[in-house]
């Protein structure tokens, strides 16, 4: 289901292409090639044509990719751009592929490869991907890739953005992550990582990581040994700003891991649909940059006096579907006064909070308040 939403761009682009074909218009007039300023060389053109033979072009979306004389300049081909170096951005133009042609390595300068939402029918990501050492951006999201993630990906030391989510990998280890020292964005959502007990350590070795999405990965909680291992020698992800760990098997031990590595930098934290229990720990209250905190659908019972203490930038606080109990007014008192002008959404619905609706007018930016399905009384 989530795949359909994530690949929406695909369907929109298809609709556009079909419209253009119906009108008999030139497909190659999209803004994707409007900036094509370079001229491609023969070797690159041949490599791209070979690469096209590995794709299934059902709707003739790549009709501009041709050896006809008036289509010689591959920088004008749809999905190709040549700002300094060739970039390939085919997400949205195709829905199926057979293989990623090994001829791709002829494009030695390739920095940007986006094949998102193209179904490669359970095939494996080829090992030679690790030879494209200039890659900065690699998107193979929702590609129906199977087998192992090739360890050669770890050779892509320039890679900044890696999106391998939504695939059917059989992941054996995360050692390959170690080489990705430039990585700022990593998305492995919907990939089964249920046996990757060392995932926190693997992530901690990415010194520049800012965005991490490991949603719906069947992630196990950080194991107890992590709590006793001093990590002072490891380059930790102190740069992390966006962390999405929704829909996993995490327990409250995740808070300990967070406490050492991400307290100052985190802006977005999504821990919804896990197995968090007990009280919201004080470490959350130390995450002074936090704007969005989502703890929906766990078994959290309440907060400590300092659970939110320094969250002066808090905008969205969502804790629906937990076991919050006691008086609503008591819970509201835990909210930081310094966030009175920033808090926009407060969702405490589907809990066991009692008492009557509190006067919240001091939260001057509050736009959405959900307290339904509690034990509230009064008018
Ligand atoms: C093309 O260039 C214009 C301005 O020069 C820019 O706004 C636009 O984003 C560019 N498009 C692509 C696909 O790079
Ligand atoms: C997809 O793979 C299966 C076997 O794994 C094969 O039978 C089928 O022909 C492939 N489909 C395409 C479109 O290549
Ligand atoms: C690429 O990665 C493989 C496996 O991780 C490794 O054996 C090989 O030496 C690497 N090649 C280069 C050029 O770094
Ligand atoms: C994930 O993989 C493990 C085995 O590696 C398997 O037992 C489990 O059922 C898988 N989980 C999902 C959600 O597919
Ligand atoms: C946090 O770091 C300290 C020292 O750097 C270490 O003693 C402690 O075990 C770490 N805690 C966790 C949960 O990793
Ligand atoms: C930490 O990073 C530095 C440079 O970025 C590197 O030299 C060092 O080997 C790294 N240490 C570990 C344990 O990865
Ligand atoms: C958090 O994750 C849930 C799924 O568990 C999702 O519905 C929600 O949109 C996410 N919220 C944010 C702010 O990322
Ligand atoms: C949640 O934790 C409890 C106790 O620690 C355990 O019995 C249960 O299986 C866990 N549920 C999930 C979905 O991980
Ligand atoms: C929160 O930060 C303060 C000041 O830096 C520190 O003394 C305290 O131990 C921190 N609390 C937690 C739970 O990390
Ligand atoms: C709510 O509080 C504000 C200021 O604290 C006050 O002006 C207002 O009259 C109160 N409203 C009610 C219904 O008590």
TrEMBL record:
InterPro entries per the UniProt record, alphabetical: Leu-rich_rpt, LRR_dom_sf, LRR_N_plant-typ, LRR_R13L4/SHOC2-like, RLP23-like
Pfam family, one: LRR_8
Main location: membrane
Compartments in which it is found: Membrane
Source superkingdom: Eukaryota
Signal sequence, start to end: 1-24
Disease resistance R13L4/SHOC-2-like LRR domain segment(s): 88-214
GO cellular component: membrane
Transmembrane portions of the chain: none
Bilayer disposition of the protein: Single-pass type I membrane protein
Entry keyword set: Glycoprotein, Leucine-rich repeat, Membrane, Receptor, Repeat, Signal, Transmembrane, Transmembrane helix
Leucine-rich repeat-containing N-terminal plant-type domain mapped to chain residues: 43-83
Protein name per the record: Probable LRR receptor-like serine/threonine-protein kinase At4g36180
Annotated organism of origin: Prunus avium (Cherry)
Highest classification ranks of the organism: Eukaryota, Viridiplantae, Streptophyta, Embryophyta, Tracheophyta
């Amino acid at each position: 289901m989530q795949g359909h939403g994530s690949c929406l761009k695909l369907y929109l682009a298809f609709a556009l292409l079909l419209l253009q074909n119906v009108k008999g218009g030139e497909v190659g007039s999209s803004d994707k090639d409007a900036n094509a300023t370079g001229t491609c060389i023969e070797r690159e053109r041949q490599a791209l044509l070979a690469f096209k033979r590995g794709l299934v072009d059902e709707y003739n979306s790549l009709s501009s990719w041709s050896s006809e004389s008036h289509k010689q300049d591959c920088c004008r081909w749809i999905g190709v751009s040549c700002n300094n170096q060739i970039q390939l951005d085919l997400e949205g133009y195709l829905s199926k592929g057979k293989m990623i042609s090994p001829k791709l390595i002829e494009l030695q300068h390739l920095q940007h490869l986006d094949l998102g939402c193209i179904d490669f029918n359970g095939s494996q990501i080829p090992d030679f991907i690790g030879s494209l050492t200039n890659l900065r951006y690699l998107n193979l999201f929702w590609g129906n890739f199977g087998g192992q993630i090739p360890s050669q990906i770890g050779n892509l030391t320039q890679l900044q953005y890696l999106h391998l989510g939504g695939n059917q990998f059989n992941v054996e280890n995360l050692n390959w992550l170690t080489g990705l020292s430039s990585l700022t964005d990593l998305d492995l959502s919907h990939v089964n990582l249920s046996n990757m007990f060392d995932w926190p350590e693997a992530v901690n070795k990415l010194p520049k990581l800012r965005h991490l999405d490991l949603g719906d990965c069947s992630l196990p909680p950080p194991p107890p040994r992590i709590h006793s291992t001093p990590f002072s020698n490891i380059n930790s992800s102190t740069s992390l700003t966006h962390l999405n760990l929704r829909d996993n098997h995490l327990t409250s031990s995740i808070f300990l891991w967070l406490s050492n590595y991400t307290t100052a930098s985190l802006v977005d934290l999504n821990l919804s649909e896990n197995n968090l229990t007990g009280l919201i720990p004080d470490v959350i209250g130390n995450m002074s940059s936090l704007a969005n905190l989502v703890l929906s659908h766990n078994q959290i019972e309440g907060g400590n006096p300092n659970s939110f203490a320094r969250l002066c930038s808090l905008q969205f606080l969502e804790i629906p579907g937990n076991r919050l109990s006691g008086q609503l007014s008591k819970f509201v008192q835990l909210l930081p006064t310094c966030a009175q002008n920033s808090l926009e959404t407060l969702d405490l619905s589907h809990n066991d909070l009692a008492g009557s609706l509190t006067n919240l007018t001091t939260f001057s930016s509050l736009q959405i308040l959900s307290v339904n399905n509690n034990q509230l009384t009064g008018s």
